[in-house]
């Protein structure tokens, strides 16, 4: 999009759109979309959360939680995503810090 600042005859300044282009400036695909953090992460209201909470309570390893999420959903989490999820759950006070 190209925008230009213009002064109207009555002296008021405004921004005018000169050209709009509704397209991506890069290649898009399902893989690229699925790699974005907001798409990868497991939402708090996910049906997986009770299972994840049980794994956290049982002090299962991060790799076990990673495998559980990947095998039971279409969330393409990374190990860092799993660590961050555990940390968020602990900060909410659901689990003690050990």
From TrEMBL:
Taxonomy, superkingdom: Eukaryota
Protein's name in the database: FAR1 domain-containing protein
Species in which this protein is naturally found: Phytophthora rubi
């Amino acid at each position: 999009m190209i925008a230009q600042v213009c002064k109207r005859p009555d002296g008021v300044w405004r921004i005018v759109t000169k050209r709009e282009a509704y397209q991506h400036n890069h290649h898009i695909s399902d893989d690229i979309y699925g790699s974005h953090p907001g798409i990868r992460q497991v939402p708090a209201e996910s049906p997986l959360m009770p299972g994840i909470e049980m794994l956290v309570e049982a002090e299962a390893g991060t790799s076990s939680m990673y495998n559980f999420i990947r095998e039971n959903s279409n969330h393409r989490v990374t190990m860092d995503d799993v660590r961050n999820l555990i940390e968020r759950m602990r900060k909410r006070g659901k689990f003690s810090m050990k």
